Backbone:
């Protein structure tokens, strides 16, 4: 986790921008500007809308990355948004990760993968790439991925090994930000613990052999900003586990609420905002449908930069 | 689930072939046969091995699909094996699904996705495709996908809605086949139930509004063949839930062991074998490195067909 921690210290900003584009979040003229180019490229016209939106997602992301790269340490593309468009979307996801990495950002792939051992080993190529040595090829360009714990240790170990080999990290779901997360994660066990507390202890254990110079392991935890009290308790329970904290902003999490998820030095957590930053242009009051695509992208970028600065300043205000 | 059930009845075979290729499972000469074609196509030579293996995976799958399409009702490509190769692998996954569908097979995408509501809605496009109506485009070509329950109801509902709209299905992880599955899934709750039993009840509930002509809902459950007693108890506990049963063969599950996961009519479960079928050529004693790529693919196909027949016959023998 040291690379991430250094990036956070460098920018003095423990926040990450979620690159989760949807059709509604990309200005229409940006999407429309690729119509001709795509129509010439695709063989089957039914493929055109997905291909067009995929290219628009990448350009939208690129504008945002350029606008925030000197402010934030990391971006977190949510692969589901790209997967929704099929293989063309996956290309846009990989291109987004690559571009963000080229701009010096830590790229956290929000993929929430998880499977039995042999299959988890295949997914772990997200971190280790395709080959070693001279023919090494890293198609995903991620510095970390999120992982689901439901399968237990043998579904996690391959990711930990890949992360260790490639100087990368993983973040395991512990307490997610959504309302229904309570249905499983909050169940009370016969031991008196909650399910998510038991998972928290597993996560702390999974990372134990990989603790870095800053005291945090390569196995982080996803802890939703919507659970401030539980997050604070988990901070104490998981002293070597770095937190990825989604749910800030649009989902209801606040700077005050996440303050308890940081350690005494103001480190130990990375707070994500997606819609609050990439959709800030919609609340700017400056958008008009008659704008050019370039002007619309400029507005997207400028609004995202302002929102990212606000978030940074709000977090700084509650940290030591 | 009615389309799957009809396909099983049609073939009189409740088994599914797992299309989980790895480099070790594809004869070397098949991979080598694409070297020249790929070298001409890729711009960056480091991309060549992944691109070459992706094409080989598809050709390998096509040979197997052709060999088993009249015997089995369904195939289950495991997307992790393709994702391991990056976007090129994802293309091979989508092409595999499309080809299997064209051959009349029910395509069960083993993707184990799961996320919060708005993100799950994006993943649900695996089932609903990209657009409706005239511009409808289905990039994934799946009839069903596997889903992870850790996020609770709001992570499942979008998949159920998409499945209902597209006459498709989902299978939610309940009790997986791997050794470490016990770490979370077997935990005893304060209520006296095990975690997986609680998940089982949620799954039965998630499907309640979607019960089809054959008495099974669109929300199936993944129950490992390696847990015969638990599987039998779950069969009684989940009367409207169809089971996908992985772990047969290479992982240790037997026909005798899975018999209890079927209902009294010998329906209600679909048993998966991957390596036991697609890797049968390695145990045939007929392979030689000097074979041509075509001959090697013929051996793969013929061995897979024999193994699929054996599995069908073994399952028929224990069912009413």
Residues:
């Amino acid at each position: 986790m040291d690379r991430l921690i250094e990036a956070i210290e460098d920018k003095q900003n423990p926040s990450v921008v979620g690159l989760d584009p949807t059709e509604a979040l990309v200005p229409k003229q940006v999407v429309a500007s690729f119509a001709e180019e795509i129509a010439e490229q695709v063989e089957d016209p039914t493929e055109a809308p997905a291909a067009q939106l995929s290219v628009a997602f990448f350009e939208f992301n690129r504008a945002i990355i350029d606008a925030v790269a000197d402010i934030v340490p990391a971006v977190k593309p949510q692969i589901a948004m790209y997967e929704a468009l099929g293989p063309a979307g996956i290309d846009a996801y990989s291109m987004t990760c690559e571009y963000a990495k080229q701009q010096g950002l830590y790229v956290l792939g929000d993929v929430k993968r998880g499977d039995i051992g042999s299959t988890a080993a295949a997914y772990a190529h997200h971190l280790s790439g395709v080959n070693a040595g001279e023919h090494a090829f890293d198609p995903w360009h991620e510095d970390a991925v999120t992982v689901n714990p439901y399968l237990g240790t043998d579904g996690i170990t391959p990711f930990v090994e890949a992360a260790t080999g490639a100087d990368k990290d993983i973040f395991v779901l512990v307490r997610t930000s959504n309302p229904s997360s309570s249905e499983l994660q909050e169940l009370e066990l016969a031991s008196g613990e909650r399910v998510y507390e038991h998972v928290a202890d597993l996560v702390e254990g999974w990372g134990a052999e990989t603790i870095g110079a800053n005291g945090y392991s390569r196995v982080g935890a996803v802890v939703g900003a919507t659970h401030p009290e539980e997050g604070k308790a988990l901070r104490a329970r998981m002293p070597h586990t770095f937190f990825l904290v989604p749910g800030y902003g649009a989902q209801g999490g606040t700077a005050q609420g996440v303050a308890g998820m940081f350690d005494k030095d103001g480190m130990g957590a990375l707070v994500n905002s997606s819609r609050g930053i990439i959709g800030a242009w919609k609340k700017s009051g400056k958008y008009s449908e008659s704008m050019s695509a370039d002007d619309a992208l400029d507005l997207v970028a400028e609004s995202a930069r302002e929102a990212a600065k606000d978030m940074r300043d709000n977090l700084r205000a509650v940290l030591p």
Q: What stands out?
A: Chain A is about 45% helix and 15% strand. The mean pLDDT of chain A is 96. The longest helix of chain A spans residues 293-318. Residues 2-318 of chain A form a domain with the TIM Barrel fold (CATH 3.20.20.70).
